[in-house]
Amino acid sequence: MKFILTSCGLSMLTNYLKSKYDIEPKEVYKRSNLRKDEIDKEFLEKVENAVKSLKHEIVRYSNKELKRLSAELNALISFYRGSFDNKDFHLLFVTDTYLGEVVADILKTFLEKKGINAQKLIAKDLKTSSLEEFEMALSDVVKELSGLFEDFKSNNYEIVFNLTGGYKSVNSFLQTMATLWADRSIYIFEGSSELLEIPKLPLRLDEEIFEKYFDVFVKLERGEKLNEEEIKNIPSALIIKIGDEYSLSSWGEIVWQKYKRDNFRFYSTEEVVKDIRIMKNVRNILKNKFPYNYSNKTEIKNWHYVYDDGNNPYRIFYFKEGSNFYIYKVFEDHDKYEKFLEKPFTEDFKKEFKKKAKIFGLKEI
After folding, report:
1. Which of 77, 97, 152, 242 is deepest in the core (most CB within 10 A)?
2. Is 182 left (phi over 0), alpha (psi -120 to 50) or beta?
3. How far does the chain reach from its first CA to its final CA, in angstroms?
4. Are 229 and 109 in contact (CB under 8 A)?
5. pLDDT per residue over 198-207, tens digit each?
6. Exposed e or buried b for every residue in 250-259, given b needs 16+ CB within 10 A?
């Protein structure tokens, strides 16, 4: 199974509008960073009519016609050798613009009519017209995408980046992410018919800077105010200054999120960690799932925050303070879990547990 991230550009729209309405590509590109209410009425009506028609027509196109129409589909059809796999999941990554979302909508409709699970990811405030907005939006994108990648990886999906379409500025950023998360990337260069596949490169993240200045990176992530003295040893590529405040740059966010996911830490006691070491399935969940999808898997029961792994008896009890996790009980026996739930979580218990807890890394379990 594959998780395929496709960066969406405007080739589908420019090609279709040119062939059906004789609208030159430059007319599309000059509106490429606009939202719907910013586009002139006459052009908007033409686009809306074109989109309505294309959504109906596209499912009848031959593979040859689809490849001529869309850079994104050109690569996907070549990658699948003409026959899509409906076990795969497709994420359509698009800028926060009207025309970008229109293209993603058409691609989503096409894939769904082929019986394929496809979703859009509209990067909020991601537009190429403002460097500052672009940088901040990319930082948010990293957090969302890195969590998705790790979640799907934990379910044995291969991560594939399709960067044939999309904007060059966005794709250069996504290619950096690909070096750390993707199993392979695919391209078809303009004017070529050959699919280029780049396999996962044997790169290792230099973790020394994060180990040495861990507390500084935590503060940057939280948005806490730092002075120049505190950040003087952090590489300038990893931070951005807006006004008089520092935060992680989009590049910094990429490597920081990767570091955190490879080096998840939590507070606990020797007694709880001993149970984790014994419980193989709980240990695997902590290593491969919990750090990446805890927010989606957590239920509140009798004031306890419980990581519920699904249709199985594996449960993790924890609480969070800032970016620190405290794991105070784990179960692989449903009856014992139900018994423990009878006692509510209290502030007194929390204070006592924190006094006994010390920090552990995944390598220690």
Report:
1. 97
2. beta
3. 29
4. no
5. 888 776 777 8
6. bbbbbbbbbb
Other CB atoms closer than 10 Å to residue 113's CB: what's the count?
11
List pLDDT tens digits, range 220-251. 877 788 888 888 999 888 888 777 788 888 78
> 275 lies in which domain range?
265-364
Same domain, 194 and 302: no
Q: Which two tokens stand for residue 195?
A: 């699919």
| 362 secondary structure, DSSP code | G
Query: pLDDT tens for residues 254-272?
Result: 888 888 777 888 999 999 9
Tokens representing 238? 């990893």
Structure-token pair, residue 143: 């957090």
Number of folded domains that form the chain = 3
Q: 250 with 138: CB under 8 angstroms?
A: yes
Instruction: Please answer whether residues 174 and 5 qualify as being in contact, where contact means their C-beta atoms are separated by less than 8 angstroms.
Output: yes
CATH code of residue 123: 3.40.50.10770
Cα–Cα dist 197/190, whole Å: 15
Calpha distance 70→19 (Å, rounded): 13
Q: Are 162 and 5 in contact (CB under 8 A)?
A: yes
Tokens 């890394």 label which residue? 361
Element (H, E) at 247: strand 245-248
